[in-house]
Structure formats: structure tokens, C-alpha cells
Amino acid sequence: MGVKQDQFIATRAAIIEAGKKLLSQRPAKDIMIKDIMSQCGLSPGLFYHYYKSKDDFFLDLITESWDREIDVLKDESIPYASRLRHYFLALAKDYNEMTSGQLRNEIAYKMTDEYLERRDSTLGSYYMFNHLTDYFAEGIRRGIFSSQLPADFVTRMFVYVIHGINLQVALHKHKDSIMGWCEQFCDYLEETVLKPYILSADNPH
């Protein structure tokens, strides 16, 4: 990776962190591009080098942890069929560590028309969607999952649970018990949805 690419990634990460800090203080609608860039010491015009719009930025802010935790799906020390549970719990833990202000304001943003339109129109391009599609395809290739597994349905269900507001509302109201709820959701997913299609729990190549 070149120096320019490293700098691009570092600057983009700094902009995301600035957005998180501001989102913990006030709603997305009250955050201006100049506020975000001022927070990380950059000129407002530079924002458009990284994002097409403020809505694109907030969508990236909301989904950035999805890609950060994706290595769980590739961890050979975890039985293949169990990696989805580990990935879900890692994401839930990230949500659980948000400040109450950021969580509250993110929930409010997820109820806007702008967010819902972007979510529905770009679902197939999300990192999570693509990574989960690859995960199931590789699992079928390895003989972990049956080729009859409704992978697209499971992927969409998983993405909508993580992407929806219900999980975050539960996190906001029941932080002390939410990880137990997430474990129960994983139990349901494995026992009801995946179990009929699991051929092996091991990691054959």
C-alpha cells in the first residue's frame, strides 16, 4: 500500500471519528460538513474528496464496524458454522460500547427517509452483504453447508437485523442484558434457520 493510500485511509478514519464524536452530542440533521471537518482540523472542501454527500458519510459511519469485524468470518480457529454467531456478537459488542448519545442519535437518523432510501437502494453493495455472501458460498464449497441453503435470504435477514433500529433501541434501553438477547438470536438462527443445512461444523478446505 502506497503512502498516498495510507494517508487517504487515515484521513477518512479521522473524519469518521470526528462524526462519531459529534453524533454523540447532537442529531445528524444538526451536524454540518464544516463541523465534521473542523473537528479533525481539515478544510470543509476536502470532505468531498472522501464522500459524495453528508448522507453517504453517515451511512459509512454507521456501517464501518461491519468491515472492521469481518476477520471473524475468516478466523480458522473458529468452527466454520459458528463464525456467524461470533461476527454478530462482535458487532453487538461494538454497538453496546457506543455512548448513549451516539446510539440515540443514530437511531433517530435510521428513521429518516434519506437513510431508508439509501439502505434499500444500496443493500447489495454493502461490505457486510458481500462478505456474508462470500462466507456462505465458501461454506458450501467446503461442504459445511448444503447447496440448498437459502443463503440470500439468511444474508438479507442478518443485514436487516443489524441495520435496523430494533436492535439499537434494545441496546439503548437494555444495555445490561442485550448480549444475552443477542445470544438467543444466534441460537434461533442456528437452530431454526441454519441447522437443516449444516453438513459439518468443522473447517475442511
Topology:
Layout: H1 3-23, H2 33-39, H3 54-68, H4 83-96, H5 100-110, H6 113-121, H7 127-142, H8 151-163, H9 165-173, H10 178-194
Helix pairs in contact: 1-2, 1-3, 1-5, 4-10, 5-9, 7-8
3D architecture notes:
This protein has helices at 3-23, 33-39, 54-68, 83-96, 100-110, 113-121, 127-142, 151-163, 165-173, 178-194. It has 205 residues and is mostly helical. The protein folds into 2 domains: 1-51, Homeodomain-like (Arc Repressor Mutant, subunit A), CATH 1.10.10.60; 54-197, Tetracycline Repressor, domain 2 (Orthogonal Bundle), CATH 1.10.357. α1 packs across α5 (100-110). The model has no long low-confidence stretch (mean pLDDT 84).
The shape, in one word, is globular
Radius of gyration: 18 Å
Structural class: mainly alpha
CATH class annotation of the largest domain: Mainly Alpha
Beta-strand portion reads under 5%
Question: What is the averaged pLDDT score?
Answer: 84
Q: What order do the SSEs take from the amino end to the carboxyl end, as H and E?
A: HHHHHHHHHH
How far do the termini sit from each other?
Answer: 29 Å
- CATH homology-level superfamily of the largest domain: Tetracycline Repressor, domain 2
| Unreliable stretches covering 5 or more consecutive residues | none
* Total domains: 2
In DSSP terms (H or I, runs of 4 or more residues), the helix count works out at 10
